[in-house]
Protein 1
Amino acid sequence: MADLDGILENKDKDYGIGVPVQRDGGFFLKGLDNCDWGLKDRMSRIFNVKTGRTVMLAFDHGYIMGPTSGLERLDLNIVPLIEYADSLMCTRGSLRSVVPSTSNKAICLRYSAGTSILTELNDECIIDPNDAIRLNASAMAVMVSIGGKYEAKTIENLVRTADAGYKYGIPTMGVTAVGKELARDSRYFATASRICAENGANIVKTYYCEGFEKVVNSCPVPIVIAGGKKLEEFDALDLCYKAINDGASGVDMGRNVFQSEAPIAMIQAVRAVVHEGYTPKMGFELFEELRNK
Ligand code: 5RP
């Protein structure tokens, strides 16, 4: 019974008395220390653990716009870009019909759906969390329209999504929209972003604007920026650079990639700015080099 004696013997054991319990603090993304393991694991699939950033490729536009320019054929326009993205933001329709199941990319599933651009936007509902689970979604993205006619409904959608998200360990992404009457400035983007976070979003998607650092600093969870309308490639890279410099945790970019004259070159240039600290000039030089290959 010598072994049992050894087990019961307190002598020479270090119980670490007085040393605070080591918690899983210092998670690489802000505001998530107290979330569950599964949720953090999914966040670690969306965001690169080394840089703390993501290049999310958005191609969910068709859910409100139909076959947008550059997205007429998802199989031809999007599939060749997938390998360069950290994460894909798309609807369940495009995921099942077009995205190869072997892509092994983090999926930020468009989780709310409703009215199209042919009528008033943002009158939305949400889909079934079981479908997000079946699709192995790494996040569920819900539109939140602040100051718009459907504000309460969109916030309820976010709240119900976050309820399901915390139940199943799937992060919720709040996608901010501001009402037609409101300025698209830091005051309203900060308000919309903060409302998303306070109501349970673990990631917020918003737009870059002057004073963007205030938007980032007043939001307790990571922010990614949408690219918005197509810009010249240099200007789009400049937008990424400024957003990252002001504290964004990445981009969720669509039109400025898939509407580029050279989408594969463009997404690689965006990656270089987001993950490798390229300046807009360096990023644009890379774009030119890759497009001429
Ligand atoms: C629309 C979206 C889009 O995914 C988002 O706007 C990103 O695309 P883009 O860079 O083209 O603006 O969420 O609600």
Protein 2
Amino acid sequence: MHSLPSNLTQLSTFPQTSKANDKGHLMIGNCDTIELTKQYGTPLYVIDLETVKNKILEYTTSLKRYYPDSLVLYAAKAFACTAIFKLANQFNLGIDVVSGGELFIALNTHFNKEKIYFHGNNKSEEEIKYAITNSIGRIVCDNFYELELLQTIAKENNKIVDILIRLTPGIECHTHEYIKTGHLDSKFGFDLEHLDNVLEYLTKSGKNLSLKGYHAHVGSQIFELEPYLDVIDILLGQALYTKQKYNIEIQELDVGGGIGISYLNSDDPISIDNWAKLTSEKIQKKCKDLNLKLPRLICEPGRSLIGTSGITLYKTGSTKQVPNGRRFISVDGGMADNPRPITYKAEYSAIVANKINKPEQEVVTIAGRYCETGDILIKDILLPKILPGDIIAISNTGAYNYSMSSNYNMVPRPACILVNNGQSEVIIERETYSDLIAKHKIPSILI
Ligand code: LLP
């Protein structure tokens, strides 16, 4: 865990191996981040292997302690990258994929197929065929259109497909409106009042589908525990109903994504261990009360597995002092490599990676390089005096940054490197200008 000297509390949102060297440079995974920027350029995504491994182990060991029959799926949408899929597979995690593309990476990395769970509210026919013909572990069925498609495609391929049913639990939680998913007015999942229709379909027509369990996901970046516990009440209530009325016993309970993380020093999410303990106890007690067999507990953390391991290094360039107003410091990246601030008003912490031991001196706004007023990475942050060419490190960019990045303004995507024990290696190469036009074609009419 973090054991930072008190003068480095500004590193508390950074990866676990973060420290300063005697030059006053930020070190991650025992690599000098300033040297990394010289070697790989900027902007640069850096992932600290030790932090990812520790987060994986926090989930798996605490769940094994409190709920032995459990499986942690890595939510690939947080950062879908071959190297990270390999790591997840090596740690015997499962994986939650939401598209043919993520499924392709999983199959291509020889991910244990039984542990691949396929989510999504509008999987295409091709994607469903791809999943079924590759005999992946589970398909998480979201709606009636998909239910019928699944049955048809499973029958055509002479397969029995194991499915989970995604339910809309009708739970409100405190997070950004765009990343809430469990409330009633949501595009995801079957409403509870339609569960009978699903179960009748499975009994009468869905002979190629085998119902293994229920899934729900209340939302992302949640700090409260109640929504996680409420969802268990709802899912197990439906499990009891299903057993009593249809004589089907649920074997798996998939409680969705993981807990929130600290983007700011003031953020105070629950710990993974506490979440695992309370979730496990809740399921055990409720199953006892309802006289249900204990199902396998599945969870699908993304952000809390990979988020904190990642930082982004940017180089500063121009500055602008608004008369009697803000001081903008522009960096060489922004909304295309981190769309979270402009999309969700997400807040981040930063330090000047080459001036860690320097006193904080001025309040600045870190602006991106994209042609859009809203392209601001951090508003009003207290930092040491910044000059052009300084390196800004933003923490907690391991999740939903690269995976949501774009080529807006035709800027190539940055490289991503993995650091560990003083070694660094590229896991995603920096894009080139040629990559930007690799798929462009000139129509014959213009030649
Ligand atoms: N399972 C399901 C069904 C999900 O929809 C999600 C996230 C997860 C698991 C993983 O949740 P996590 O452990 O990462 O909280 N782009 C947004 C986050 C969208 C999350 C969508 N679903 C952001 O940057 O905050």
